[in-house]
Amino acid sequence: MSDKNVEICQHGIICSMPSERFGYFGWPSIARQSDGTIVVAASGLRFAHVCPWGKSVLFRSHDEGLTWSNAEVVNNTALDDRDTGIVSLAQNRLALTWFSSDTDKYRDSLKKSLNSQDMQIIERILDAWTDATREGYNGSWIRVSEDGHYWGEPRPAPVNAPHGFIVLVDGSWLYLGKAWQLQPGGRMPSSEQPIQAARSQDEGRTWSLLGAVPLPPDMHYEDCHEPHAVQLPDGSLLGFIRHHKPFQILLSRSLNGGTSWTEAKACGVLGSPPHAILHSSGAIICVYGYRLEPYGQRVMISHDYGKSWQKDIVLRDDGPDHDLGYPASVELANGDILTIYYQKLQKEHKNCALLYTRWRLTES
């Protein structure tokens, strides 16, 4: 199967528990370790898209994504652990990012969507959470593993995004995300907080806040979320931002390491949130969820470092509903791309699964 300048090699399943009570998985990220191990992180073993039971889970593949391990729980705080990112560090080290959320703020909407029995169970949990519980766990976090298996203590981060930070060529961390408070227990910010860059030169122990991404006069920060960034060969940064109203991707550049950014501009695709990598061919590959019919996963590709794009290339268009997306990619040893995401396999399924597509670039 092919579409424009890509060839689809294979669709597959990382984990699917379609009818289990706690079998919902969402918002995955992916990394490739130095030894070739592929690690997928997600919020999983959940009851639903919004619930108090989210955990940060990992899956591993030692054969380029053909087979996967069972779910391995890394985080299970008292709150809902969501949007788990995974970042490969040198020598098989890993970093995990996520945020812990107070489900109580969704209580009224949950009452409208859940049956009374399930809601009673959830309310008992929410009523048991104390202010100390919320203060202790609510926030944006990072954990580092020195061997990819045993994890250090959580470190607070000043911003948050689903796929976490990127490692720059000088070894420092650049985190483009929605701004949070920089202290343990930092509250989730109001939607009016900006998309802002932060940099750490000591692996997340301390952070320096850099520049915020300016918006055009007709756009608002409350509609901007879940960015990702890629560093280009000249050292500049290209940022990708999820925007609502309409559901689209905005682009912004920084020529000074994130200290300042160009005004964000729509790139002309009606999908989000974005995840980008720089392929060994020099192409920028940005994948995103597509929540209009036909639902699925798409990619846009640039061969001139973001000056122009081949847009809306379909990786998959068989999603049964709009609860899907958050794709992320890694390049495999032979240059193929492995893109992972979440969606239901069938409309009648209760839970979303973690799936993958292996594909490759072809000649223009």
Verbal overview:
This protein has 364 residues and is mostly beta strands. The protein contains three helices and 26 strands. It has one domain: 6 Propeller (Neuraminidase). 7% of the residues lie in helices and 45% in strands. The strands form six sheets. The chain has a five-stranded antiparallel beta sheet, with no helix packed on it. The model has no long low-confidence stretch (mean pLDDT 95).
Question: Secondary-structure blueprint of this entry?
Answer:
Layout: E1 2-3, E2 6-15, E3 24-32, E4 38-46, E5 55-61, E6 72-75, E7 80-88, E8 94-101, H1 107-113, H2 116-128, H3 131-137, E9 139-145, E10 155-156, E11 159-160, E12 166-167, E13 173-179, E14 195-200, E15 208-212, E16 224-231, E17 237-243, E18 248-254, E19 265-266, E20 274-278, E21 284-290, E22 296-302, E23 310-316, E24 325-331, E25 337-343, E26 353-361
Antiparallel strand pairs: 1-2, 2-26, 3-4, 4-5, 5-6, 7-8, 8-9, 9-10, 11-13, 12-13, 13-14, 14-15, 16-17, 17-18, 18-19, 20-21, 21-22, 22-23, 24-25, 25-26
Please write the CATH class name: Mainly Beta
Provide mean pLDDT, rounded.
95
CATH fold-level name: Neuraminidase
The number of distinct β-strands equals: 26
Low-pLDDT stretches are none
Described by the principal axes of the CA atoms, the overall outline is: globular
Give a summary of the structure in a few sentences.
The chain is mainly beta. It has helices at residues 107-113, 116-128, 131-137, and strands at residues 2-3, 6-15, 24-32, 38-46, 55-61, 72-75, 80-88, 94-101, 139-145, 155-156, 159-160, 166-167, 173-179, 195-200, 208-212, 224-231, 237-243, 248-254, 265-266, 274-278, 284-290, 296-302, 310-316, 325-331, 337-343, 353-361.
